[in-house]
What we know:
Blueprint: E1 6-14, H1 19-32, E2 36-41, E3 44-47, E4 58-67, H2 71-84, E5 99-105, E6 110-111, E7 116-117, H3 126-135, H4 148-154, E8 161-165
Antiparallel strand pairs: 1-4, 1-5, 2-4, 3-4, 3-8, 6-7
Amino acid sequence: MRSALASAYLSLGSNLGNRLQNIKDAIQKIEKSQKILIKEVSSLYETQPVGYENQSWFLNLVIKIETSLDPFALLKYLLAIEDQMGRKRGKKWGPRNIDLDILFYENQVLNSDQLIIPHPQMDKRRFVLVGLAQIAPQLLHPVLKKNVGELLEGCEDNSIVRVYSEKI
């Protein structure tokens, strides 16, 4: 018997090495799981760094998935992909070849040492909201009680987010 599938939204980003290839490789690795199905992919955006600004610009996109993995198993799988791709964790908000984050998992609210869902600070990050609003503008943030389109409208982050490619 197949377990029920949950919808989740993931953010992918890269600003080291071949950024485009890093994003493509991460998507391929995500797709390899028999427990994850990619349903939608936003455009690819080139984005100005936020937090630590003295670094190269990022490529970012958002994907909608359906998965039979619970949130913690999904996190473990995504961290394993980052490890396989050689991600080095250094300066907070610093350069990285790949960054995979869970933005939403159904309408769940989790707050543990390992995982916070919805992703904290997401509502303050234009680079996340633009891609998310493209594929799920009516998605309701279960804590803030605003949809993604409203969050983007009210976002005070003025960093530059521009379309790099409409298809990956």
